Structures are given as structure tokens and as C-alpha cells.
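Final report, closing paragraph on structural work. Over the funding period we assembled a curated collection of sequence-structure pairs, and we close with a single example.
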Amino acid sequence: MFHFLQKEPRAIRFLCQPEDSGVIAPPVPAKAVLPDWFRKLPAVDQAHLSTTNNGLTVKRCMPFLDAMTTGWILPIAATVRLEIKDNGRSVEAGWEFDRVMVSNHGAHQVAGNPREPAPPCKFHNYWSIRTPPGWSCLFLPPLNRPGQPFECVAGIVDTDTYAAHIHFPFFATAPDGLYSVEKGTPLVQVIPFRRDAAAVTAEIRAETRMEATERAAVHRNTIAGQGWYRKVARASR
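Its predicted structure, as stored:
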């Protein structure tokens, strides 16, 4: 009898309380919520296209795009109003939803941080995140999506064992004023990863002649075409 190895499931689960299903904003794939400015940007700017300029925009930059489309976006569950006052020294929050949406950390917990005098605050999240054994999640401000009046702090959680809600510390970054953070606004980007894959050793040395040839081939393929060269060039052995 033949025995076939079953592949390890690689699903990430976002779970909410039954009464919150269909009410709070759900997580979405990062690639589904690209910023409007990026969607409207042409891959080639015809106004700059000439014999000395290929007119390429960041839309042809695969590292930039890959960063934006990796993982999931966890949004704010319900609309919150943030009022930033006293040159950023005070942040007040209000909402109509029947869950706590924002609370405060003690400033002494991050004394001397570069965001001072902005106080450390915290968005409350009502999705629990579960990953397969050996998988953790990196939570960070949505990549290449600036423009919100706040920025969440990055962190890593072992979501294969930690099942409680993960809340997101943030600092207000906008000038004094009243800001409405609408339901569904991206809070953090969630990138699952295998912990053993992250535990790589470093080799730090000068490159070999073969490695230099490979690097040069990749660069030349990139500039020979229209955009990022994804394939790894292999020099003849």
C-alpha cells in the first residue's frame, strides 16, 4: 500500500465573536486594497518617455509592489475620531461602537522614544489570529501606504500558541486637529512566516567571481528590459 505525505496546512485564520461577524471590518488580502494613487499610476509615464528616459514609474518596481501585496491588512473595526492637541502632546479618542476602540499606554513605558511628546496609544482589535504550528506573524504599519494620522508600532507574535486578541500600539503623527479614522481603515499589515525559516545564519564575506558575474547578469537583464528582472541569471558553469 502506498502512503502519501500530506502537505502541512498553511491557512491563517481570523476569528471573531459570533455577534461581531458581519459587523466589524474584516481582514483583507493586502493585494486587494492597493492605494488609489498606485492603482491610477501608469507603468510608463508617457510625459517623461524619451530616448534618454524610459519613463518607468514605481509601478514597475517589483520590490515595492511585493511589499505592498504581501500578507493581509487588518483594518480598524469601527470608526474612531482622534483629536490631536497641544502640539501632539494630547490625543483623545471617541466612537459610537459598543466596544472599546482606543486606550492609552503609560508614557513611562517608552520614555525617551523618538515620537515624544506624542503619547503612546493603542487600537483595540477584535479578531484573533491563528496560524499553523511553527508559524508566527509580523505586524507592522501597512507597507508603502503612508498618509494616516497615526502609525502603529511593529511587533511579532507567535500566533500558533497565542490565541487572545492582539491590540496595536500607535502614535499620532498628524498635526493638531480632529481626524476621523473610518471603519475599514488599514491599521497593520499581517505577514505570516515560519519561525525556522527566519532562523538563518549569516555569511559575511567578499563575493566570488562567479557571484559577481551572476549579480551583473541580473542587473543587465533588468536594465535591458522594461522593469524588474525576476529570474535569477545563471552564469555558465
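DSSP finds four helices and 14 strands in the chain. Residues 215 and 233 are 8 Å apart (CA to CA). We thank the funder for supporting this effort.
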